[in-house]
Give the backbone structure.
Amino acid sequence: MDVLEDRDRWNAEYRHGWLAHFQQTGELDWDRYHRPTNKEVPAGPGLDLRAARLVLISTAGGYLKEHQEPFEAAHPLGDYSLRIFPTSTTFDQIAFAHEHYDHRAVNEDPEVLLPLRHLEQMHAEGEIGCLSDAVISLMGYQPDVTRVLDETIPAVISTASDMHADAALLVPS
């Protein structure tokens, strides 16, 4: 099963519609943007989380403010790169570069989009086997779905595989 059904049609609509309009006018006209839709949900086999190594994936645009470059939050076509940081990182070391959600809640309680301490508690209570040593962070504003499929997802999978993750928790912003 394809992650994106009828990829070529979506890509043509994106390139000749929304992207072409942006390139001609500089205007982000979301009425022209066709969100991808599938008739079938891509899924894999289930597993027992109590025996799994879980990796946290966040689309909140979190990065280590002292050691990593922020995401290009203002880029009109998005930022498709990743930032990796230890799950033991304290929240005062993390900043968020993402212009497409209201930051009030995450500024008040970072657990809203980075539930690290909650996941540590779940591990202590035996609800998950263990938590990976690092968080995979990205900026969720990525309008080119083909770039997400060709760049972002393979980078996330490779990084999660290097962490020996069995399961992932994706927390969207």
Summary: The mean pLDDT is 94. The first helix runs from residue 7 to 25.
